[in-house]
């Protein structure tokens, strides 16, 4: 075993939260080392035009994704079933290399609703304890919206988010989201121009009395310099966003917003091709001594550190905690234990909207987030759920993120999937179709969790992470309710035809269908060490010199895209480490 | 602008294709390679497959020709080079299963909602399935798939799609889904991968390809986009 010189802080994984921790902690003067299992990658040369405009390489074969051949997860629907490997990409997309999933996201950049952060308390206070099914185990984050607000704002200003405020210091703003929590400042950039599909959707939604607004987009709408001094260029709605790196320097990613400054810091270093397999503990098990990783040559390397930041993707964070023996693994039979607890996902539905040939949608004009309109009236707890019998909700999305023909061409319902009729429909529909979709929350349940698979191993012989997940009654009801509202809007758009993809009671979770990469939970934060793995500062209750960032901290999944909340929680955690922990290492919350 | 001569050339190309390609099904496999080279001849030399054997190659061409046939709406898969695309994909990491987790144990009886669970890489799946489908066709019709008339080929494809043909070792629906997915990939992917010759599919639907610059058009919602496609290597149409 090779033993390296000790550092003050080691960061495992170098995506969004690793980069945020890297810049914030190196700014505090300590020595920071980030370990990334993949390679270095940057806008140029890796994502340069025109090579990036390659749907097959990126969109379909997944050039930016983690190679599943080396490591994947296993999946089963219920406790007692045998899990099988996620052998090909489908349901969610894991990132790879520097920047991680923060390079191939869409830039859909939301804040949580205030009630999302205190969800159990809020639901209990508004509807009573019995409104929650017995096996639903939703929890509070231990952080309120007001406490988090400055950090949510900070991340938006780092990303150059384009949008329109709906609630500025308590005053509702025309054209913004009236359901959002109070923000202190306007978005750093104005909204990206609407696509035509989005415009038709918003007009229809307004007619029905809803409150459409431009989706907050970390696709910069104009040239922008962020607070670190990194510069972004204006988005040109090229249509190659989700699953792609951004050749325009427009989509916020670690590469466009943080790395240009961080990589020059003398007290920061990055080691790529360094695959962390374990967080090392001392003999008490209460203190981490560093990490062990496998380097590019396949050698085991020990990296001592005073502070360990676990900043990989949600699932990898959970797996690493289990492999390292930090915190008690969750047991679905007793409900005890915390690591692996409260795995959740999201539930989407979508409607293909087809117009006559006189309506030029031009679907290839798209940004991952910009140019799209949102109706948030039925998300979170923005409406009275009492008579509906479910918890949570979804936002309704109108417009398109691109029109790449292998993946994003759709044909009207009833069209065969091949042959002359399919071809005619593809030809007639392509330029004249758009999408309305719902993007919804999934609650956490006693029997939905993560643990180590007993059978399948990764390329290094370590057990894969096992997902036990399927839909619950609450989510079928949520999706049906919001989708019915979305259908009303589609009808108002007066299309020639529309298609519907809705998950109905009895439909099992289908790992083949892409929905979102927004998997959450497993190392959740909260106020009580018996029900959460981390305190409100994302610090391990069990091993206080370990912090775990990312969506693994979410006690249940909200209806919004997670990146905005992930960034906000990471900035809050970084501030606590800088201002409190580094001066006096130890638990930041006393139990 | 030289649009007019080019589009004339394109129509001529399609017209010749129309005359020749539908004849394949009627004339049988012996004429297949001739028919194909006739339709492609004036643009390029015929492609020699690297992975697929001669009988597999005939199957593949005959199948993709039915999945996306040539007609007045636009080019078919055959003249678009989809068979060439699939053959070339078989020699990539993807074809060799290098993008997939391929460690056992394998549980093909797992629910379909849990995804692909066979031990076949894509190239192995094609090899096993084509032999099995041809074997089935010989048993039923005394002819391999590529020798069947168009309507009969369509019928076999429909039955594969619905899982009505039971093949030993290969679930027919999984093979059909793989074939259809790769066919659409080859039809719509950038031409540098061997399919989508002359960007014919992009022109048919109105996709501008790798243009990726719509800053001005984003400000004009609803207005028809006027510029034809460009490929990654810079070919225009």
UniProtKB/TrEMBL annotation, chain A:
- Which family is this protein grouped under? Belongs to the GMC oxidoreductase family.
Glucose-methanol-choline oxidoreductase N-terminal domain location, by residue? 233-344
Q: Does the entry feature the keyword Lipoprotein, yes or no?
A: no
- State if Ligase is listed as a keyword: no
Q: Which InterPro entries match?
A: FAD/NAD-bd_sf (IPR036188), GMC_OxRdtase_N (IPR000172), GMC_OxRtase_C (IPR007867)
Key words of the record: FAD, Flavoprotein, Oxidoreductase
Q: Name one GO molecular function term.
A: flavin adenine dinucleotide binding
Q: Name one Pfam family in it.
A: GMC_oxred_N
Bilayer-crossing regions: none
Q: Which organism is it from?
A: Dyella japonica A8
Tell me what this protein is called. Answer: GMC family oxidoreductase
Glucose-methanol-choline oxidoreductase C-terminal domain: residues covered: 452-566
UniProtKB/TrEMBL annotation, chain B:
Kindly give the InterPro entries that the UniProt entry links to this protein: Gluconate_2DH_su3, TAT_signal
Q: Which Pfam families match?
A: Gluconate_2-dh3
| Superkingdom to which the source organism belongs | Bacteria
The protein's name in its UniProt record? Gluconate 2-dehydrogenase
């Amino acid at each position: 075993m090779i033993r390296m010189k000790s550092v003050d802080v080691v960061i495992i994984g170098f995506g969004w939260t690793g980069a945020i921790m890297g810049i914030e902690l190196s700014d505090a003067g300590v020595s920071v080392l980030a370990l990334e299992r993949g390679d270095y990658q940057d806008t140029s040369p890796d994502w340069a035009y025109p090579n990036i405009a390659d749907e097959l390489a990126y969109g379909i074969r997944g050039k930016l994704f983690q190679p599943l051949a080396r490591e994947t997860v296993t999946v089963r629907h219920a406790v007692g079933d045998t899990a099988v490997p996620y052998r090909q990409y489908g349901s969610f997309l894991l990132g790879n290399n520097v920047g991680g999933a923060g390079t191939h996201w869409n830039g859909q950049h939301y804040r949580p609703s205030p009630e999302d952060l205190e969800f159990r308390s809020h639901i209990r206070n508004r509807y009573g304890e019995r409104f929650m099914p017995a096996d639903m185990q939703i929890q509070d984050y231990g952080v309120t919206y007001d406490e988090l607000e400055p950090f949510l704002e900070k991340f938006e200003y780092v990303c150059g988010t384009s949008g329109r405020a709906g609630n500025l210091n308590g005053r509702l703003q025309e054209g913004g989201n009236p359901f959002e929590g109070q923000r202190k400042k306007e978005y750093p950039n104005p909204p990206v121009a609407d696509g035509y599909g989005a415009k038709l959707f918003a007009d229809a939604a307004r007619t029905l009395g809803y409150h459409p607004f431009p989706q907050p987009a970390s696709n910069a709408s104009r040239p922008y310099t962020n607070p670190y001094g990194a510069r972004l260029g204006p988005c040109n709605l090229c249509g190659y966003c989700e699953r792609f790196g951004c050749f325009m320097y427009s989509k916020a990613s670690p590469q466009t917003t943080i790395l240009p400054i961080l990589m020059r810091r003398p007290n920061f270093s990055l080691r790529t091709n360094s695959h962390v397999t374990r967080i090392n503990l001392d003999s008490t098990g209460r203190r981490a001594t560093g990490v062990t990783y496998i380097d590019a040559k396949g050698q085991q390397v020990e990296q001592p550190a005073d502070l360990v930041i676990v900043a990989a993707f949600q699932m990898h964070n959970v797996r690493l905690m289990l492999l390292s023996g930090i915190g008690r693994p969750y047991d679905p039979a007793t409900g005890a234990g915390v690591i692996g607890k409260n795995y959740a996902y999201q539930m989407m539905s979508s409607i293909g909207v087809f117009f006559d040939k006189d309506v030029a949608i031009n679907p290839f004009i798209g940004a991952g987030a910009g140019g799209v309109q949102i109706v948030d009236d039925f998300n979170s707890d923005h409406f009275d759920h009492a008579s509906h019998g479910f918890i949570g909700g979804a936002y309704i999305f109108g417009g398109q993120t691109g029109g790449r023909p292998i993946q994003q061409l759709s044909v009207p319902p009833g069209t065969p999937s091949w042959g002359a009729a399919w071809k005619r429909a593809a030809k007639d529909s392509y330029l004249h179709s758009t999408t309305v979709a719902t993007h919804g929350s999934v609650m956490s349940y006693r029997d939905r969790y993560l643990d180590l698979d007993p059978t399948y191993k990764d390329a290094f012989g370590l057990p894969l992470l096992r997902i036990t997940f399927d839909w619950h009654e609450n989510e079928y009801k949520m999706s049906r309710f919001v989708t019915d509202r979305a259908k009303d809007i589609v009808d108002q758009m007066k299309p020639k035809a529309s298609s519907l993809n809705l998950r109905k009671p009895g439909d099992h979770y289908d790992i083949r269908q892409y929905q979102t990469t927004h998997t959450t939970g497993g190392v959740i934060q909260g106020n009580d060490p018996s029900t959460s793995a981390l305190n409100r500062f994302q610090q391990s209750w069990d091993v206080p010199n370990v912090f775990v960032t990312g969506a693994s901290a979410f006690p249940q999944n909200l209806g919004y895209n997670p990146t905005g909340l992930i960034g906000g929680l990471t900035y809050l955690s970084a501030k606590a480490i800088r201002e409190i922990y580094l001066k006096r290492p130890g638990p930041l919350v006393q139990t | 602008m030289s649009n007019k001569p080019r589009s004339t050339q394109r129509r001529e190309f399609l017209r010749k294709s129309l005359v020749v390609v539908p004849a394949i099904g009627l004339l049988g496999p012996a004429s297949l390679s001739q028919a194909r080279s006739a339709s492609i001849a004036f643009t390029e030399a015929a492609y020699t497959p690297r992975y697929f054997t001669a009988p597999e190659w005939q199957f593949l061409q005959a199948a993709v020709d039915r999945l996306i046939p040539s007609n007045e709406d636009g080019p078919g898969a055959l003249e678009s080079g989809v068979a060439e695309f699939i053959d070339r994909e078989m020699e990539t990491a993807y074809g060799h299963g290098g993008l997939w987790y391929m460690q056992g144990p394998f549980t093909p009886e797992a629910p379909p909602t849990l995804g692909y669970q066979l031990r076949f890489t894509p190239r192995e799946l094609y090899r096993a399935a084509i032999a099995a489908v041809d074997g089935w066709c010989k048993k039923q019709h005394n002819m391999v798939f590529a020798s069947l008339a168009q309507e009969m080929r369509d019928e076999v494809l429909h039955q594969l799609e619905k899982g009505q043909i039971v093949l030993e070792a290969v679930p027919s629906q999984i093979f059909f889904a793989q074939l259809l997915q790769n066919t659409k990939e080859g039809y719509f992917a950038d031409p540098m991968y061997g399919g989508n010759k002359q960007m014919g599919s992009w022109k048919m639907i109105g996709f501008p390809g790798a243009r990726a610059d719509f800053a001005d058009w984003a400000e004009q919602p609803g207005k028809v986009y006027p510029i034809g496609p460009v490929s990654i290597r810079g070919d225009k149409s």
